Amino acid sequence: MTEARKPIVNLKNLKLEHWQRGSFFESSDVSFGALLGLKDLGIGYGEVPPGKSGCPFHNHHVEEELFIVLEGQGTYRFGNERHEVGPGDVLGAPAGGPETAHHLINTGTVALKYLSISTMAATEICEYPDSGKFLAKTRRPGSPKASFRFIGRAASTTDYWDGEPGA
User: Fold this and answer.
1) Considering the domain boundaries, does residue 147 fall inside one?
2) pTM attached to this predicted model
C-alpha cells in the first residue's frame, strides 16, 4: 500500500539544496511538486543571495513559468526590459522566443525568496540568448526527470541525412 501524499507543504520544512556556479549563479532551492502529488505542474522554492541569480537568462518554447516574490528585492530581466520587483510581485514568463527570455537577479541586501511554478511539458526546447545555447529535453508524462536531454549550439548543426546508411 502506498502512502497518501499530503495536500500541504510548509516552506520552512523543506530541505533546500545549496549550489553555486561561477561568481554570478548561486541559490538554495528545492522542487517539491511531487510531494504534493503533482505530476504535470512543477513548483519550487528558491533563496538567492544578494548579487546573484538562480539561473541563466533563458526562454521556453513550450512551458510557461510564474514566479511569486516572497521576500527581498530584485530585477526581473524579461526580454529587452528590466523590472524592479519585491514582495508580493507575481512575474509571468510565457512560452515564446527571445522576447520572453527571463531570469531574476537579487539586487537587494538580503536573500531573494520566491516560489516558481511551471507547466511541465513532455517535450521542451529552451534557448539561452546570452550564450547562444539551446536545450532539448523530453520526459515521460508524470515523471519529473528527463529521459532525453541535449545542450548544444546551432552552429554545430548537422544535415538531416548525415550519417544515415545509404543516404
Assistant:
1) no
2) 0.88
